Amino acid sequence: MSSMVDRLTVKIFADGADLEGIFALSEDPRIAGFTTNPSLMWKAGLTDYREFAARLLERITRHPISFEVFADDADDMRRQARLIAKWGENVYVKIPVSTTSGESMAPLARELSESGVKVNVTAMFTTAQVELLTEAVRNGAPSCLSVFAGRIADAGIDPVPLMARALEIMEAAPRAELIWASPREILNVVQADQIGCHIITVTHELLPKLDLLGKDLEQYSLETVRMFHSDAVSAGFSL
Fold it and tell me: Could you confirm whether 94 is annotated as catalytic?
């Protein structure tokens, strides 16, 4: 483990739905929490949401872990959220920033948060959404606001100023933490750390690259040259 990882103040949450992978990562001192979502669970071949959560929570008792509702109206989201919240003290309930028709779920976030449910409002992309949801959770339980910085970058927009502004807005809700969601590269961990972001989610596939933080670039160059040469030899290329 590099000293650069040790110096990070941003908390790293592992993002995925691989049961055994999550269990292994729960022993990794670098990992401070876990997130998952229905898309990741579906891709992992899971069909029984409750059983998956129960198996996870048998082992994951200290780390915060987020489970997402999948309803598409406030009433059903409320029912699912209250059910999920009862699964464990370390459980955060992910609710989308809006329904699929665009109806804001800020009122529901406020209701749940002020009743003691730890919410993680997800799929947020704009500072206007951050302002609205900060106001919604400011007087409630501990909460998270997940801003999809990686997808913002996919749209050709630098997410760093937006995330820095989100942190300023969220000063009004001291029990809320900003999550830098959907990172695309390990540089994003450094960027999140530099602006003082509270949490960054990192996929299981990206996590091994944490070991590269702070790596000497001359050495990295040499290793890359050796890799190209070794692969060419293994392929048996000739000219």
Answer: yes
